Structure formats: structure tokens, C-alpha cells
Predict the structure.
Amino acid sequence: METMKALNYGYYINLDERGSFSADVRNFDGQTIFEVETDDFGEVWLIDAGYMKDTQDIAGLAEYAVKIGTLPVGTKIHSMSDFEQLEQEWGEALSVIEQFGPKVQIAHLYDDNEDLADALNTVIKDFEYPDHSHKTIEQLLAQINGAPAPEQKKSASMRMG
């Protein structure tokens, strides 16, 4: 399942002064995934090598990071302000989902709750109700956050022959 969290990263410029440049690409957890810095001669090798046009070329940086396998295909790197807006939307959507009981199935909530439907469509790329209707809130939240979903206990049934 591709989530907003797994496919979006932020580009944070930490220093941009007279021949010194430092920036990093961060995930939703605030972890630095990739760094862009000037070398001892004041050059950014990604620009010299033609991967980036300049220090603001986020698209070039994303293409390179995907090419070398640092980021997954389909990733988008955003400016700091745009990324922080996405983080806020992510947090708001999660808080909507988390307000429901962990053992309740999506099927029992989705049709009657537009806020939940909107939240699920925000956090899960290309959300399709049939793919998730059988899951509980707890299972879906685990998957959204990148953890394996807890197993659903199945009730025992007798087979009549």
C-alpha cells in the first residue's frame, strides 16, 4: 500500500551563504534521507554532474534519488513549506481515523462517514474501498504507519456435511 507518508519528502535548506550550501531531504518522521552540500571548493557535485540544475532543482534531485534507489519510484520531494503543509494534512487525517474504535471494520463506517472517507483518501494513494473494507481501523492504521497489520481473529465455525 502506497501512503502519503511513504511517497512524500521535504527539501530543507539549512545553509545558503557565500559558497556554502547545505540541504537535506527528510521523511515524515524527520529523518534525513539524503544530503546536498558544497564540497571543499564550494561546489555541489550533483550540479556539476548535471543531476541538478541548481540548488533549487527539487525535481532533478528526486529523479537522482530514485535512480540510485535512495527513494522509491513515485516519490515526490517538496519544498519545506509545502512539505510542512502535507505533514499537517497527514496529522489531521490520522486524527480523524484514530477517533474510531480499533476493532471496527472500515465497512461499518465508510459509507456513513464522509470525514473518514476523505481521511483515508488523503493518507492512502489511490484508495479503493473494496481493497480495505474488510480491515479494522487498527489494521489499517498499522499499515498506514508502515507496520505489519495485526492479524484478525477468525471465529471458529462448524461445517455441516
